[in-house]
Amino acid sequence: MKYFGLLLFLFSFSVSANSAVTVEWGTDEWNGFTNQDGIGFYHDLMNQIFPSPKFNLEVSYFPWKRSIKHLSQADIDMTGGMPKSPDFYQSKKPVLSEKILLVSVNKLHVEDLEHKLGAYRAGYDDVIFYAALPDNVAGIEVKDVEQGLALLTQGKVDFYVDTEILISRVFGENISKGDMQTSEVGYFELYWSFAKNEKGKRLKYQFDNTLDQLNKSGMLRSLYDKYDIAMPF
């Protein structure tokens, strides 16, 4: 039965020279990951996992929460990365393991946040800000990490919360000069996520199998090293 299932899976993704499986990928724009010019870690990784001409990878950019909504409605085939969720098929292994950092002018800890105003990237209220901080902490949405830096520099917010890699890339100079301080407030793993339907299941298998092959060949390590990202496994 397992052998028959494997044959069925392989047959479902077998294509002729004139056909390809279209993969609709919906994502927000993250600098260094999903730049709209096609540059970034996620772009490189997806081109390895869903290569042309076997696959036709179509990328659409949405605000993060809209990407999740489209995926839940199966209007798109995949997005990523996300914390573990029963609402989607998700990759066997995480694509990122991330610390959640709080950055401020004067070092703050969670217990210092009463009567302080924080900021977070739009759509990250549940998965980052309130995943790491108490519900009674005040926070506002910003368009991107750069706007968070601007508001913090101008004194309009007291702190900004995001993943370590995005904070290091945008706030790095200010942190290295000692103008801003960071505190670790949480940690999570992010998994590539697929629509919960038959196509999503097949794409998940393609993702997991190819990721394992890339890992065994050493190509996956090279890709993480290219973008200075720590491998999560």
Task: Explain this structure.
This protein is α/β, with parallel strands linked by helices and 233 residues long. The chain has helices at residues 2-12, 41-49, 64-72, 125-132, 145-153, 164-176, 198-217, 219-226; strands spanning 21-27, 55-61, 78-82, 89-90, 96-104, 117-121, 138-142, 159-163, 181-194. The strands form two sheets. Strands 3, 4, 5, 6, 7, 8 and 9 form a seven-stranded mixed sheet that branches. The chain has a two-stranded parallel ribbon with strand order 1-2. The longest helix has 20 residues, at 198-217. The protein is globular.
Envelope shape? globular
Largest sheet: 7 strands, mixed
Number of strands: 9
Helix content: 25-40%
What is the string of SSEs from the N terminus onward?
A: HEHEHEEEEHEHEHEHH
Cα end-to-end separation: 31 Å
What is the radius of gyration computed over CA atoms, rounded to a whole number of angstroms? Answer: 19 Å
Question: Which structural category do the helix and sheet elements fall into?
Answer: alpha/beta
Count of helix runs: 8
Low-pLDDT regions: 1-8
- Give the averaged pLDDT, no decimals: 92
Strand content: 25-35%
What's this model, at a glance?
This protein is an alpha/beta fold. The chain has helices at 2-12, 41-49, 64-72, 125-132, 145-153, 164-176, 198-217, 219-226; strands at residues 21-27, 55-61, 78-82, 89-90, 96-104, 117-121, 138-142, 159-163, 181-194. It contains 8 helices and 9 strands.
Key traits:
233 residues; alpha/beta; seven-stranded mixed sheet; two-stranded parallel sheet; 9 strands; 37% helix; disordered N terminus
